[in-house]
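Regression report. Comparing outputs from two consecutive submissions.

Submission 1:
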Amino acid sequence: MTDDDVLHARENYRPSRGPSTPAQAFAHWTARVAETPDLVVCRELAGLPDDQLQALALAYEQAPRHRRSDLFRYSFGAAAVLALAGAALAVAELTIPGPVVGRSTYFVGAGAFLGGAFIALCVGALSALRQVPTEAAYAKLGLLVGPLDPQHPWLYKAWFVVRNPAATAYRDKVVRERGPVRGLDHVLMRRIADLQDNMDLTLNARAVAATVQAAGEAPAGAVAAAPSAPPLAAVPGKVLSLGASSEAA
């Protein structure tokens, strides 16, 4: 690491205290899930003690839906109020006589309120679209920190993954050192099983390549080839058909 790397790392290093409440911790990890690959987040969550993971799981059970905390969450309500005010002024414009020359106050007010309602509606729609990744990360974090109980949707997937010996070894270590197996462990076990399968395929490919390239040696476990059927020309008086042979006419 050079001096420039150290200076760059120091400029981007902002130490801070950890979240004090489970809700704040869940919000922190939700933002982390939204901007970080799943495997990296699972490795970071796997380093937490089981009591912190259990606190995150309880926080998700208490609030399974993401609750927005930004000011734009009131945009749709403000748009409804402004639209009602504009509609009331429009009705007043139609029922109450106004000045003969120029625009009446009711007409101008109705246009202003309806325009404000449209702007608030657009702001609310855009802010709701921006919250879609956060809501998805919130739900994903709930699956990651939740234990693999009968209600967890990844239970049977984890059961198939545990058949791999490397994944079984990881599962045993987690149960022995940390506690219950959780959704994040399923992601890590699946990655471990994939790596183990790829290693096995690589080793098998090397063995097969060595056998193919070897001169004068028969492959181990080779089965003697069965005698091939005689060609059609060697069977006189027979006509090939779709299921049975018949005598030539």
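Submission 2:
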Amino acid sequence: MFNLEEFIVENLIEGYRTKTFNEYQVNIYASGYMLKGAITQEGFDEVLQAIENIKNPQQDEELEPVE
């Protein structure tokens, strides 16, 4: 079955990742969707966290050589 929230969240994240939307646009769109009830607070938080992860990717810690 089609899940509107999942569709919106995934497309907002992908739109930011592909530079279709800038961070400000994604924030405004996500806020609007949440206020209209199309996404939950959890969906909104997922979008914000994904943006932070894209902006600041976790770098793998370098492994120390085994002696």
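Expected: both submissions complete independently.
Actual: both completed, but the second showed a warning that disappeared on reload.
Relevant detail on submission 2: The CA atoms of residues 22 and 47 lie 13 Å apart.
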